[in-house]
Every structure is written in structure tokens, then in C-alpha cells.
Amino acid sequence: MIKDDIYSYLSGNSGITAITTRIYPMLVKQNEDLPAISYSIDAENEEVDMSGTVQFRMTGITIEAFASGYRAAALLAEAIKTAMSTATPYWWRAELGSESDNYESESTAYSVALSYTITHN
Predict the structure, then answer these.
(1) Residue of 17, 20, 32, 55 with fewest CB within 10 Å of its CB?
(2) What does the alpha-carbon distance between residue 30 and residue 33 come to, in Å, rounded to a whole number?
(3) Cβ(81)–Cβ(96) under 8 Å?
(4) Which residues of 94-120 are buried (b: 16+ CB within 10 A; e: fewer)?
(5) How does residue 73 score in pLDDT terms, banded at 50, 70 and 90?
(6) How many angstroms separate the CA atoms of 13 and 84, rounded?
């Protein structure tokens, strides 16, 4: 399942784990230690051939880097981008669609949201 694969890939990447090992599906709780990462599936689509056989799947995913300062969030986001662009598993390809900076006033956390489309089998 792609959700498990995303977690395994992020948590197994030394560039990311040098910064944080806190990687969570959907959200980072408000009082969680930072830096941390959340990831969520935005959309899933299948491409089928004329016989109805699935040829590949496309999954939209958002990976968000959280930190107590903007620079720390940006550095974590860079580690995620490097990991996603240079060492993706052979059976999937990640394409960065957008990047946005955020500040959450309630938790006083900065974040960088990275939206990807992952093509996989």
C-alpha cells in the first residue's frame, strides 16, 4: 500500500532522519516535539488499458515539514525534496507540483507543505 511505502521511505532516508524521526500520517499533534513531518494522501487514480487492467496508479500526496523556526522548516523541506527527487524506489516516480510556506499561530510552528504526484504500480 502506497501509504505504508511513503512512511517506510521517509523514515528510512538518512537525510531526513538526520533531522527528525518524527513522521506521522495526516497531522502533527499540537504539542508534539519539533521538527516533525506529516504526510497525507490527497487523491488516488488508476490508469487502465482497454481490457480493464490497471497499468499504473497516480497518487497525490502532501508532505509537510514542521519546525519551531522558519529556517529549520525550510531545511527539513529541502531534505524531503532531495530524498523524493534523487533516490525514489524503482517502482515509483515522484513529481513536485507545489510548495507553500505556512505559519500556525496556535502552535507557533512554521511549516513547508510539498505537494507531489507519485506514479506507481
Answers:
(1) 55
(2) 9
(3) yes
(4) beeeeeeeeeeeebebbbbbbbbbbee
(5) very high
(6) 10
